[in-house]
Amino acid sequence: MTTSIRSLQTRYKLIAVLLGVSPFLAYWFLELSAGPSISDDVWNSVALVTLFWSLNNMLVLVYFGYGNKTIKASLLQHENAEKARAKAQRDLESLLNGVPYMLGYWDHTLHNRFSNKAYAQWFSMKPERLLGNHINTLLSPQRLEIAMPLINKALAGEPCDYLVTLKNTANDRPSHILVQYLPDVVGGEVKGFYTIGQDISEKHLAKQNLILRTKLLELASEIAHVASIVIDPKTGEVQLTPEAQRLLNSPRDSFSNLGEFCQQFVCTTQQTQVEENMRHAVQQESSLSIEFQTSDKKAYFGCSGESVVIQEKPSYLMCLMDITESTLAKTRLIEAKEKADQLTAAKSQFVATMSHEIRNPLHTILGLCNLLNEQCDTDTQQDLTEKLKYCTEDLVDLLTNSLDSFRLDRGELHFEEDEFDLWSLIYNLSTHLYGGAKNHDLELRIEMKGSIQRHWIGDAFRIKQMVGNLISNACKFTEAGHIRLRVEQLSTNLLQFSVNDTGPGIPEESVNNLFDQLAQSTPSTVRLYGGSGLGLNLVKSLVEHVGGTIQITSSEGAGTTATLHVPLKPGKKQNTETLELLTSQTIQLAVANPQCDVHAREMLASMGCQCVDHGALLMITDRIETAHAYLASNTNHRALILPGMNGHVQTSNHPDYANRIFLVQGPLQPAAIVKWLYSLQTPTDSKSNRPRSTEPATELVVLLVEDVKMTRTVIKALLNKRGIHCIEAENGQRAVEIIKAQGDTIDFVLMDINMPVLNGIDATLEIRKDCRYGNLVVYALTGEDESTTTHSRDWSVFDKVLSKPLKMPTLEALLDTHRATKAPEPYSPQ
């Protein structure tokens, strides 16, 4: 229609143009053809006719222009109506296609007149193809047989519905469709019927699940002894379900109030509390969770409750559960745990006691070894004494590792956070382990790579324990070659300790199992080398406890490298005096071992010392003959002698050079160099690294408190050899009595911790109570750390904790400190 109107409008425009120009065309043609033969009057008449003709045509043109506007307005109105109709149709289709229903319309002849997309998809076709189809061509005979009676009802004006079950091709679950037929009645006559289909598969499945769960709940209630009780908040009436009656063995199904219910079923000791809790929960509409014992004391019940609405009526629902078996099992478990805790505590006490009792004789043996070592006349005797000492130290280390592993599993191991000197730690570690390496004919090398901060904050004892275990392992499994400890600073708060050996190596498949407790790399390892398998497991546990890591790299025939990464805090202490001492030294090197020579040059450079090949007053060498020749050339020369190529300590029997030679027992390291340089600050005739004179100069008085007589004997002998007068006490009570009697004459106290009658901590507290001796220096003397002592008291009552056996450097430093603060008058025995 729109196209035909536009065509007619175009024609009218063309006719209007022709009418407008035709008079002028006729006048022009007449003038050309007639010319001068026509008079002026005739031409005037023709002109007048032409003019009127043009005016007429102009009126026609104006008429056509007005009609064109009218047609345009009508056309625009018609187009807008068409667009609105199309949009409404699209919106309706979108709406009908978007609803979760299948919609269709069938006339009274059973031909389809409308369907949405979902309804058409049910018949596997598009809506436009479904339009006009008869229902007989769409439904199968079986479906038609079911649907026709209902369709006839709908055509008779009666709404009806039925459930259709279809097989779902997407999954194995069937689809359930609820189909409704609604008659279309117009003026009392049925024109057709609407079809509405709804997928109720989820609702149907939920209904089936609800039925199933209800049955399962009934079955579970019966099996699990669970039941429900309903309480009316207004009246307080208690209603028991049949399950609750069976569970409580009650003939009644209701009680007038909670008091009557509790009196019937709750034991007398809990009745008041249970009733109050239930009543409060019901009144406050809060949740409830209680347990109670029945009145006959044969069963236990757990009760939980919530405020609910049942059949539009506020109620309080409580669930009862028979917890008799679990309660009895819990009671038995608690009793068993208490017994286990008592047994564990007894074992811990036994371990602590045994640790003390075992360490005492071991430390006494080590003290005797120190005494024998100072009195040996020959190298053979000294060597045998050192071997005895190192074997005893190995036994102490094994005992320490075993006990620490036990305490670590129980979470009882103690970790310190104190500032320590890394150089001193490495020195003490190498001194302790050098004998073990020498006994295996191994060379122990220590390398400190690059610039390393000297002072750190952490647990020095645990670091020494970890690195010492790695070196001991390396010594045990290495038959020839060397053991190398390399220390590096990776960052401002991370140190790396690497222990490398030239042993047989470990198979790759066994490396991951090395950290298991009591593990060895292979079964043959135990037969060949022995060992408990505690070391690496303990090291891994210790380093992980402080936030570090351990890594083992090895291959058969190529040795093993164990690497520790230990996070530490930088220390604040600055040894400016030591730094000035080091930077002012020029040292001559004459080391025959090439690797030791390179290592010595790197170490001296990192410490700030200048290293030369000749012309210095100080020399480091590993050959005794070179040292003698160097010392003979100048009386101001001093020499530090390292162990020889075979790892054994060299000795000098030349009487003129004894005070100018410093012998190192172990690998070269910063602490040994610093100790040597400090020894040069005093006159040569009074300084030697030989044992001090045994002439007793009793300038200090020490009170030794120790319950083991043999230990007292050893410590007293060590003190007497250094000119110390020693007063003995066998327990803390005796020490307190001696202090009160002659405390003014005592310079300091060596106090054992674990003693009968009165232990060391309590004895020290008793001494501190006396204002006269509150500042008396008391050193704890123990073979164990804080975590192993049988007392839980704070060790801060002591000025310092000293480990048994007393190390010679520790003892010398202690005595030097007190000699420096004591008046010069010698002590005279009373």
- Alpha-carbon distance between the termini? 144 Å
Biggest sheet character: 6 strands, antiparallel
* Oligomer type: single chain
Total helical elements: 24
Please give the share of residues in helix. Answer: 40-55%
Strand and helix map with partners:
Layout: H1 2-34, H2 40-98, E1 102-107, E2 112-115, H3 117-122, H4 127-130, H5 141-155, E3 160-166, E4 175-186, E5 189-199, H6 201-224, E6 226-231, E7 238-240, H7 242-248, E8 254-255, H8 258-265, H9 271-284, E9 288-293, E10 300-310, E11 313-322, H10 324-375, H11 379-409, E12 418-421, H12 422-439, E13 443-449, E14 455-458, H13 460-477, E15 482-491, E16 494-501, H14 508-511, H15 523-529, H16 535-545, E17 549-554, E18 560-567, E19 569-570, H17 576-583, E20 586-590, H18 594-607, E21 610-612, E22 618-621, H19 624-633, E23 638-641, E24 661-663, H20 670-679, E25 700-705, H21 709-720, E26 724-729, H22 732-742, E27 748-752, H23 760-769, E28 777-782, E29 800-803, H24 808-821
Parallel strand pairs: 13-15, 20-21, 20-22, 22-23, 23-24, 25-26, 25-27, 27-28, 28-29
Antiparallel strand pairs: 1-2, 1-5, 3-4, 4-5, 6-7, 6-11, 7-8, 9-10, 10-11, 12-14, 14-19, 15-16, 16-18, 17-18
Helix pairs in contact: 1-2, 8-9, 10-11, 10-21, 11-12, 11-16, 12-13, 13-16, 22-23
